[in-house]
Specification:
By secondary structure, the protein is mainly α. Helices cover about 65% and strands about 5% of the residues. The chain has one domain. The chain contains six helices and four strands, in the order αααββαββαα. β1 and β2 form a beta hairpin. α1 runs antiparallel to α6. The structure holds zinc ion. The site of zinc ion has 7 residues, from α6.
């Protein structure tokens, strides 16, 4: 029978695998974006391919990247803000002329955010057990 330590470790491992799996799927979705595909087309002139990269971050200027750059007037009337979650979805939505690969990546990123929160909770649970164990066995 699994004890509380095994359960905590299994919970952590499960959460870690979920985060890692989502990260792989995000990478795969982004690699299918036409901006990334085009950047790997070596028949294109260098300057044309270079324009597909953001020098500051070293990342491709995917549609997802573009959506993160969009600024719109803030609702309070002062300054500009980045797109909210609904705005991002609207910008990337394939039925709205968006990129289905970047849309998928964004949906997966949202899932990963939740999975990372669970991973954080699982890590805290292990730490709590560790503190409890230290009290019982003292310094090892
Ligand atoms: Zn894209």
């Amino acid at each position: 029978m699994a004890d509380k330590y095994m359960l905590a470790l299994a919970r952590h491992e499960q959460a870690k695998q979920k985060v890692d799996g989502l990260s792989r799927r995000i990478g795969l979705a982004i690699s299918r974006c036409q901006v990334v595909v085009k950047s790997e087309d070596y028949s294109l002139p260098n300057n044309e391919r270079a324009e597909l990269w953001d020098d500051k971050t070293g990342k491709h200027k995917t549609h997802l990247w573009q959506a993160f750059q969009v600024l719109e007037p803030s609702s309070c009337g002062y300054g500009e803000v980045h797109l909210c979650e609904d705005g991002m979805l609207e910008y990337l939505r394939p039925s709205n002329d968006g990129c289905r690969h970047c849309y998928r990546a964004y949906m997966l990123i949202k899932q990963r955010k939740l999975a990372r929160a669970e991973l954080g909770r699982a890590r805290l649970a292990i730490r709590a057990l560790g503190k409890q164990a230290m009290k019982e066995v003292g310094n090892v």
